[in-house]
Amino acid sequence: MRLSIAISLLLALGGHAACLDTASTQRAIEDCTNPKTLDMELNRRYQALMKKFAQDPALKERIKKSQRTWLAWRDQELEIVPSEGSVAGMCRNTRLGQLLLDRIRDLAALQESGEGDACAP
Predict the structure, then answer these.
(1) Handedness of CA 57, 59, 61, 63 (dihedral sign)
(2) 92-101 pLDDT, tens digit each
(3) Which residues contact 52 (CB under 8 A, 6 or more apart)?
(4) If exposure means fewest CB atoms within 10 Å of the residue's CB, which of 8, 79, 89, 99 is most exposed?
(5) Maximum distance among all alpha carbons in the chain?
(6) What gap in Å lies between CA 107 and CA 103, rounded to an integer?
(7) Where are the alpha helices (DSSP H) in the chain?
(8) CB 42 within 8 A of CB 105
């Protein structure tokens, strides 16, 4: 429950940008972009999409393909983050957090689209 509230607040406040605007310590920055928390939310959103479109196997397959492609792209994006130095871990987690938040927003938009949305699946 607290996880869902925290993610909802992050998304409502502009997500990662709003959180980072107020973060003044390394710990606060890490809390804004905690990859484990965000990954759980991403998985929850993805599963909800699969459930929403259970009656449309072709669309489900396209969403699966999109997610697999996004995961590969995410991994490549992380390859360009510096991997040495005292802040390398923080830099990687921050970038991963940004990528996860962006994808969560994308999946949320798909999940919330529907009747009357000309661009909805």
Answers:
(1) negative
(2) 988 998 999 9
(3) 111
(4) 79
(5) 51
(6) 6
(7) 2-12, 16-22, 26-32, 35-52, 57-79, 88-112
(8) no
The C-alpha atoms of residue 10 and residue 17 are separated, in whole angstroms, by: 9
Structure tokens belonging to residue 32: 């804004």
Q: Where do the domains of the chain lie, and which CATH numbers do they carry?
A: 2-112 (1.20.1270)
Q: How far is CA 64 from CA 30, 38, 49, 50, 107, in A?
A: 29, 19, 10, 9, 12
Instruction: Give the C-alpha separation, 15 to 49, whole Å.
Output: 21
Model-wide pTM > 0.85: no
Please name the residues in contact with 18: beta carbons below 8 A apart, sequence gap of 6 or more.
Answer: 10
Tokens of 14: 């502009």
Distance CA 31, CA 97 (A): 10
81 DSSP assignment:
S
Q: Residue 113 carries which DSSP code?
A: -
Calculate the average pLDDT of the chain: 82
In whole angstroms, give the CA distance from residue 86 to residue 32.
19
